[in-house]
Amino acid sequence: MTAQEVRLCGLLLREHFGEVVEKVGTHLLKCGAQNLRTIIHETGLSVDLVKKSLCVLVQHGASTFSSGRKGPGSPTEYHASCDRILRILRYPRYIYTAKTLYGDTGELIIEELLQRGHTTMSSTVKTVADRLTQNMAEGLTMDYSEVSSTFSKLVETHFLQRCPPLPRVGNKDSSAPSETPATPGTPAAPVNTAPPTPESFPECYKVPSMTLIGRGKRQLASEDGEEQRSAKRAKMDPQTHGDEGIYWQVNFERFHLHFRDQTIISAVANKLDQTSSEIVRTMLRMSEVTTSPMATCTKPLSANEIFRSLPPSYNILRPILDQYLTLLVDDPMEFVGKAGESGGGMFVVNLHRALANLARATLESVVQERFGSRSARIFRLLLRKRHLEQKQVEDFAMIPAKEAKDMLYTLLSQNLVQLQEIPKTPDYAPSRTFYLYTVNQLPTARMLLQSCYKTVANLVERRLFETKESKRLLEKSQRIEAILASLQVSGAEPEQLTEVEEMITAPEKQQLDTLRLHINKLDSAENQVDETIFLLESYINSTNASS
Amino acid sequence: MAEVKVKKETNLSDPVEVENRIKELCQQFPQGITDQVIQNDMPHLEPQQRAMAINKLLSLGQLDLLRNSAGLLYRLKDSQSTSKMKGSDNQEKLVYQIIEDAGNKGIWSRDIRFKSNLPLTEINKILKNLESKKLIKAVKSVAASKKKVYMLYNLQPDRSVTGGAWYSDQDFESEFVEVLNQQCFKFLQSKAEAARDSKQSPMVQRNSSFATSHEVWKYICELGISKVDLSMDDIETILNTLIYDGKVEMTVIAAKEGTVGSVDGQMKLYRGVNTIIQPTGLVKTPCGLCPVFDDCHEGGEISPSNCIYMSEWLDF
């Protein structure tokens, strides 16, 4: 948990949950696992506020609780998870993916679940159906069963999973989050120190049978005020549908696997051609559920199976497919490897190697944009040849000595290139030592990841700053919009409307437009940097798994 | 009547006679004579007189002093070189000889000093003298620009000193390299595009997008942009820089001996490629390229709130 990560988590918590939750969350991140009393004491907040913040954090999975370190009798300790909070940055990408795969229904289901953290299937289905009905044409409503079927599809492809049932920690501990709907109790479950992963439960992906018949309700205008008030709290629905106590959450790992597959496919398309990328897409789709997330490569697939599973629109003949597969195997990037000869040839997708290549391309692109294409040449040269002396670098890269020296020193000062000393004599005399330049991919990737976190934090802060600067203007425009809306509802004349609209002067309108443009730009920049973060994180995690 | 043997004796006290005799001996033995030979010929000659005669001949530049495993050798110097050195003294001759021995790689002044054991000032004077007489020349080495190596006037300096095809007058020709770089890349790229457009089976497409280093070499020679003759090795170094640019990839295949362009039974094939990802998200933000990234923090003089790079980027 580096300082940059903590800063970014704090900003994200503040934006999504408010300052109180931010305070509690950052305190937990900085100080590790702590029990309730210590948190209250050190943050200086009231008991109520701390309890509610912890509830929010646990509801969203950002915090977990477990029994204290001193044994079963000690108070529970709360532990905040930095990774989970950083996922908040990626919410737009998850929602967009759901939209492309499952349409508007899928998009709204994922959005609901991301906003609420953990919910039951029935409540999600109802809310989504209502929202969809809102946007549909007059007289049409959304049937619950349609939404349920999309929900089931999401569960089948493992994008959603059940929350693991939490052990009841003890009746007297009222601060345990038993108020939130996230604790169905298995009474007196054995206490274990590590919270169980959702996948360790056999029923993780089982859709419960529930009775839910009906259609979405369209909101009427008069219910507007009421709706806004209760939108923040989960509706206390008196009806029961047979799935009480089964709460669902979004399975982030599955989305990450999907993103990883997408990146590999687009890399193959860039390097080779469209058909090869389709073949790789087919191979990855076939191994979606059979490959574990940390696997080095997918399970071997025979060429016959691949041929049968290709999308029919592609119409590739069998010998042509074999040629494409041979080309993929021969490619120096080694996306696809051959694992045997049975069944017309067994092929695997080398996941870890693909991630390493993608991370390497990311590093090279950063050096190229920051320092120029000649420095990028030196960087790639050092990546290939590992250790080189200065004279050799100049010779291989064909760059004049003075400029090469300058570039190497710049890269060295930015810590992208390291110096390795090899002494000829036991006293490290400079005239009698070899100095070799080298690039280590993994530490450089980590360093760049921290820069990414800092960049995103900078972008968020800039966005908050811009909003704060124009706060007065924004409030004025909001007031005017509210007046306009109420006038329209009560049936005012056009002159009154134009009069109200003119209360915003033209330069102010322009200012508002620029502000909107800035905020959008900053938002999209955050998403772009998040893509880099995702690549680098996947690469670093893959090296962790294999080591 | 007693015969008085009149021996025609060389008047041994006459040094000129001694010298002439030694010279005749040298001519008899063109590969050189040792002290022993002179002694055998003139047994009555005292060592002192012999030494004096030899020294006189050496200083006149008519005799060459050499050393072999047996001892000292004296050899008659041919007249042409003798005339050249007329007017020079011993030390100059010594230095000249050392430089001659260095061949076309040249020799550094410090090495001359080691070999001749003469003091530095003397060496410098002698070198200047010889240069003015146009007997030697100084060539700047490309490895260390301050270092000058000396070699005989009419010799061609070796490739390692001048740096070969990429250096002209000790300057690295970066524009020349750049031009060659771009030309090779264009050639490979157009070949790859032609292969892609041909719409044949993928194997054939890929194979036709490859070019051997020999083909590239022929293309560059025909283009005629180079004043200097370039060898295939030179072209391969250029192609390697393209690999380090990430624009080209290389494979090695086994080729029959005797096919054009094969070296030791292998051929190198080059092919233009695209990068596998677009420029990454981090560099699309000003922070990714910011030179003062490490100094930036909230509340400081450089912070996200007052960052001028961000303001410019947002207004773009």
Automatic annotation (TrEMBL), chain A:
Residues 176-192 have a biased composition (Low complexity). Keywords: DNA-directed RNA polymerase, Nucleus, Transcription. This is DNA-directed RNA polymerase III subunit RPC3. Component of the RNA polymerase III (Pol III) complex consisting of 17 subunits. GO terms for molecular function: single-stranded DNA binding. Residues 227-242 have a biased composition (Basic and acidic residues). Pfam families: HTH_9, RNA_pol_Rpc82, RPC3_helical, WHD_POLR3C. It comes from Haplochromis burtoni (Burton's mouthbrooder). One of its GO terms (cellular component) is RNA polymerase III complex. Residues 363-439 form the DNA-directed RNA polymerase III subunit RPC3 winged-helix domain. Belongs to the eukaryotic RPC3/POLR3C RNA polymerase subunit family.
From TrEMBL, chain B:
Coiled coil: none annotated. The keyword rRNA-binding does not apply. GO terms for biological process: transcription by RNA polymerase III. It is found in: Nucleus. Keywords: DNA-directed RNA polymerase, Nucleus, Transcription. InterPro entries: RNA_pol_Rpc34, RNA_pol_Rpc34-like, WH-like_DNA-bd_sf, WH_DNA-bd_sf. Pfam families: RNA_pol_Rpc34 (PF05158). SUPFAM superfamilies: Winged helix' DNA-binding domain (SSF46785). DNA-dependent RNA polymerase catalyzes the transcription of DNA into RNA using the four ribonucleoside triphosphates as substrates. Specific peripheric component of RNA polymerase III which synthesizes small RNAs, such as 5S rRNA and tRNAs. Component of the RNA polymerase III complex consisting of 17 subunits: a ten-subunit horseshoe-shaped catalytic core composed of POLR3A/RPC1, POLR3B/RPC2, POLR1C/RPAC1, POLR1D/RPAC2, POLR3K/RPC10, POLR2E/RPABC1, POLR2F/RPABC2, POLR2H/RPABC3, POLR2K/RPABC4 and POLR2L/RPABC5; a mobile stalk composed of two subunits POLR3H/RPC8 and CRCP/RPC9, protruding from the core and functioning primarily in transcription initiation; and additional subunits homologous to general transcription factors of the RNA polymerase II machinery, POLR3C/RPC3-POLR3F/RPC6-POLR3G/RPC7 heterotrimer required for transcription initiation and POLR3D/RPC4-POLR3E/RPC5 heterodimer involved in both transcription initiation and termination. Belongs to the eukaryotic RPC34/RPC39 RNA polymerase subunit family. PANTHER family: RNA POLYMERASE III DNA DIRECTED , 39KD SUBUNIT-RELATED. This is DNA-directed RNA polymerase III subunit RPC6. It comes from Pundamilia nyererei.
